[in-house]
């Protein structure tokens, strides 16, 4: 009898659902997300592996907290999902590019763009990054107050233009950075609103958005036109690769698709790195012990000796600082997926059109994985990174849609920090509270003002 009872209890234990339901109405969930999405995500982190938000039977919605479920969605059952709403919103600006295309089309685009990020290419980009970072440092004046968020945006925009488009945007970087900012803000508002207003409607927000798109497109088409006339100049850039790519029928990539991929790089390729760098300068200023170790490492590295990549590989602690910033302040703070058809994951079955919200921001703050999860401590990446579950830490996503430029981004951030940090440290010029602002990328709300202090 005892054996039968034990067997029954064991069977019941194995059928316990890993899906729990949030203790809020659909309206309460919507209002909470609109008010503070990061707080909602953090507050439900330990409510279950998969938290059901309601939203009705036709389009049920879930918050994903378990690294195992993240692996299922991004890797094992990737073919069952699309990006859904996020692609629909972003495609209004960047078209059907690498960030928004789906399935076979996405695989094809990723395949022809991958060579841009090969090791040999990144080595040549490193020299450009170092050159632009040192030029930026040369322009700094001790004691001046500057918006770190704005200047990092302009610096990374310059780097993307030089490396991906072989183009100097020095005279237009302020205008273009502002246009990128407008598209990001308008896209974020649309993404988190209950209805997607057609971009053609003449609302004040849409007028700003369309004007920003025209500003970026003007530059993109000018560069494409010049590349058609002077192809040799662009040979080693993304644009040169796009112009040389042919399909199995010998057909080249259409101009519109080139435009889409260049717009994708403009938005996804520099805004995320700029926000990451802003968070790092803030974190260094708030943690003197980390800042001291950072500058100590820089004393032993001569950036102008040998290749930039050789020096990059020596910056071990700087790399850990970046990894820790990516843990606490991941630019891609949320990942959205929608099931195209019924899918079973880890014994749970989910209906077609179910939507899943995966947040690296909240998952990276799990105290069951990371000791003192809210503490900025880069050393943790030298101590126990290998012991963490897969997808307990995933700042660049994962699976077929992982960030194609992750190695480039790490190199770029490291060399910018090193080149500027060799000359300056930064201190805040006000004591206003710093708050994260979750738009398309995670930024500091209202920006960050700091002053450079010579080393």
TrEMBL record:
> One Pfam family of this protein, by short name?
p450
Q: Which residues cross the membrane?
A: none
Keywords assigned by UniProt, alphabetized: Heme, Iron, Metal-binding, Monooxygenase, Oxidoreductase
Q: Which family, according to UniProt? A: Belongs to the cytochrome P450 family.
Give the protein name, as stated in the record: Cytochrome P450
What taxonomic classification does the UniProt entry list for its organism?
Bacteria, Bacillati, Bacillota, Bacilli, Bacillales
